[in-house]
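Case study 2.
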Amino acid sequence: MKNNQTILIIEDNPANMALLTGYLKLWGFDFMVADNGESGLRKAGKGGDPDLILLDVFMPVMDGFEVCRQLKSNPSTAEIPVIFLTADNDEADKVRGFEMGAVDYITKPFHPQEVLARINRHLELRTLQKQALIIVSAKSKKIIAYKEVALLYKTAMKKRTRAQIAEDLLVFEAGLANNPDASQRDIIEGLGISRSTLQHWLNRKDTIDAAPEVVNFFESPVGTAYLHRLVSGLHFVFTLCNPCGIRAVCEYLELTGLDKFVASSYGSQQKVSKSMEEGACEFGKEEKQCLAEGMTPKKISAIEDETFHPETCLVAIEPVSNYILLEEYASGRKADDWTSALEKATEGLNVEVIQVTSDEGKGIVSHVKNDLKAHHSPDLFHIQHELIKGTSVMLKSRVKKAEKALKEASEEVSRQQEAKVLFNESKRQPG
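Prediction:
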């Protein structure tokens, strides 16, 4: 998956450089490299504009502390987050690094998931900072006050996604493993979360009724991403491609035990389904625009009809490709309504409608013949309907005549049978 953010690596050790660049390639990041502090300063300050810097602490000539100091003293690079790379767990060095302006530390040897989690966390923070800092007063056109920016930034950071929580927990657990003497408070300060929030996350994880291996997987960043993909796939197959409905998704989650990791209520999954439908519609619009750009001129037929559920919905489809040209609610179904809707639906498409098949409603026929100047063909259902109307009068009169004759004959048979019964029951004279 391609990322649109660039990371600058300043590292003098070729083996560590190769390892980090390999990670970044795998994760889809763009990156720049520098094997010493001076080169790193040039690349960061002269149009490089990296979104984040991974900086080795101990380098010859100019160490990471001095590089960080110069980065933070230069207005053009001061806001770029710096993560120190070090094999040293000395607290004094860490404190010095934070005082210089570093935002985090990654200890060697590197753990891929921890590296990715810390990078993602600080890139997200950087993005939020940028969004906050571009808010401009409508009157003065100046950057709003620092306190307001900080408040907006703090408010935005309160809303963590499931994936972000998993990343934070991974960083926390890796921090404990790499720093046995560190306290929880020391580790979570860099994550921007409170101890009560951390305890809530840990308690929730401990109370999940599933095998520890399953819990550890689905509560990890990789497992969370897989779960998101799985639920998205369920909705795509069940509700978009097939008429199974949302309740089938809920039942699937419950039967598989995945409801322990994702909400399986109808309301929760309805939100997912709605989001997917909206996403599919947006993708359809984007794809239509992309395909239209290189489309050669084409003459097409269209099948048009009106549906009611309960509002009037105008529908048109191209029968060769089954492409839905139009599916839109309208205030009416007159010729103007049809023409306006179809023009909007085919806007940007290099097509000419030369023939339309539909019923023989006055509005549609007028729209086809007078507005589109196209040939109109009645559909087979309505042709059959019209033929039956033309021949049914004579057939109906004959059917009625036969029904009348049958009724009279049945009544006569009944009378004769009754007469026979009376005759057989009467007393007859001798001889």
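The mean pLDDT is 83.
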